[in-house]
Amino acid sequence: MNPWRLRLLSRLDTLGTVRAVAQAAHMSPSSVSQQLAVLESETGTRLLERTGRRVRLTSAGLILARRARVLLDHMDSIEAELRGFGEEPSGLVRLGAFQSAIHSMAVPAVTRLVREHPHLDVELLELEPHASVPALRTGDADLVITTTDFGELPLGPDLDLVHLATDPILVVLPVGHPAAAGRGPVDLSTLAQESWAFDIPHSYMANLTLRLCRQAGFEPRVVCRFSNYLMSLQHVEAGLSIALLPGLAVDPRYRLATRPLATPVTRRITAALRGGVPPRAAVRAVLDELRGVPDLPGLGEV
Predict the structure, then answer these.
(1) Which conformational region is residue 101 in: left (phi greater than 0), alpha (psi within -120 to 50 degrees), or beta?
(2) Most CB contacts within 10 A, which of 124, 143, 222, 271?
(3) Helix (H) or strand (E) holding 33
(4) Contact between 174 and 180 (Cβ < 8 Å)
């Protein structure tokens, strides 16, 4: 059986359609269908069944797709050993991380790793929580930094989870804002008349901020939406808005004030990797480095 075709089959199990697999693999749908047909010939087993214009996996196809993930991980481990480095971390590790974890956790970890392990290559992928686990399951990432709060992460027995940190959700204010006085917590209801910087619609922080504001009894007046936290911080620093942001997102290069919420809200930062087989030495090295999480930003002016 061709490993590349097995990976296509595994992606079909996760993504659901040939078109989605083709987009992920940068292929045409017809090429994906042809390769899956070849895989059926290689196995001598019917792996797909057609319902109208769609295809779905047969029982045999489901078994092979899910076993394929384990087989592919074993092959990665064997290839690393055959390079002759033994337990020395080597080869490529694709590390996915959401935006605020990239600069605060992933980049410092990778900087140390490439200095200590010259045969290790780490490819960083920006993946928000809703996208990171599907990428992990399809083999497009080897390890991801994600969150396990607010239903963002579809868990399953096929994943191994490692707690990395607890990150507070903070009120981010311009220096000099009345609510920035002192260091105590802020009641969100006192900010009902403020102008708010939001993440893009339906994103993790946009949904959370809207829900918390409504629980506090008001509909926030949103004056800007950015997909980049640094742009939100710049907007707040200029005195044009306030925001709710995770502590990891508060970059100390900006002069801002942060305050905790009167009713604390936190998110759990978690590393996830595929279960079933021991991780490669290279993946273990990246995971071990991520466990040295930096201190989260303090409260007050930053």
Answers:
(1) alpha
(2) 143
(3) helix 29-43
(4) yes
Interatomic CA distance for residues 245 and 84, integer angstroms: 45
Rg (CA), the chain: 23
For residue range 251-285, list pLDDT tens digits in order: 889 999 999 999 999 988 999 998 877 788 889 99
Q: Would you state the structure tokens that stand for residue 180, as one six-digit string?
A: 């920035």
Confidence (pTM):
0.66
Q: Is 3 helix (H, G, I), strand (E, B) or coil?
A: helix
Mean pLDDT throughout 106-124? 89
Pick from 183, 181, 192, 170: which is nearest to 261 by CA?
170
Predicted confidence (pLDDT) per residue in 137-164, tens digit: 888 899 999 987 645 555 667 888 999 9
What is the spatial distance between Cα 81 and Cα 55, in angstroms, rounded to a whole number? 38
Question: What phi-psi label fits residue 16: left (phi over 0), alpha (psi between -120 and 50 degrees) or beta?
Answer: left
